[in-house]
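*** Backbone structure tokens ***
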Amino acid sequence: MLRVHDLSEDDVPPDRPPQVSVILPVRDGQRWLREAIDSVLTQTLSDLELVVIDDGSTDATPALLDEVRARDPRVIALRQEREGLVAALNRGLAQARAPLIARLDADDIALPDRLARQCDYLHAHPDVVLLGGWAEIIDENGASRGKQMRPNPSGLRETLARKSPFIHPTVMVRADAARRVGGYRSAFEAGEDYDFWLRLADAGEIAILPDVLIRYREHGGSVTRTRELRQIYSARLAKLASAARRGGRPDPSAALAAPPDWHDPAPGPFERDSSRLFRMLELADPELARAAPASAIDLAAITSQLATLTAGERKFAQAAVLNLLNGDRKLPGVSRASLLALLLRLGPAKAIKLMLKG
């Protein structure tokens, strides 16, 4: 049986959309960009287009893209000012002509048959709108780190309700479903992918192909505490919005046009409790904990939501409470006994380790 991706380029009518569009956002990615692009253009599935969105690069990225475009017409290079990842991804979604859209990052490498495997799966499973995969971890020089990211393909909806089981640069989605749910949303900064997966799961089935599809590069530039906290905050809001939709209620996040500020003195009802919690969690930063006025110490913001804290939120809460315990000032209305009790409630074993370390 002849599969679509068995067709040669000469067999494909010039006016027919490609089978797959690969979206690759980049900013100042000259170091690894060529390798990422070559891994797409040498796929066993050649009926594709590669949509690269340059988000205001100031390095050699634009020149590299001009060079690649000159030798392969399947490459489409779009340039925008520094509008951010969400704007770049949505521009790619709007530009893509194929019914299937794959993602790749500018520092990762797609294995040669990655697109063919995912296309075969989606052709065989028409109800699936979101398909992920596994990844091998490599270092900045491309050497294997001897481990792989292998999300469990079973029980995906249950996992998705708690956290994202998808590795973003491995995913392939159906274009019609992606556009129907509205693409990525800027309000969920640093967690825009998780919000997108939750909304795609409302539109159809989800799956993970238990095959290594990409080489995922880990390199310098560790995630800052602030960005990690923003990612966790966005994930909490995304889950709350998803729960409302599943309950047949309107999406409470639909009115958010930008990432909420958890310091907003008048937050909306949707983000109010989460903002109250995250004002406490940011005290995991010792400097913020030292500078926080006594009136800002709101232990009830944590205790009232203790049962719903994720592992990441619990980690920040433990660090915040420990910082307050280790502080050299007295906090009116907040005793050391209450701080210690909360630290133990957040996790006795972890509390002991943190106190010994501190």
Remarks:
- Residues 260-357 form one domain.
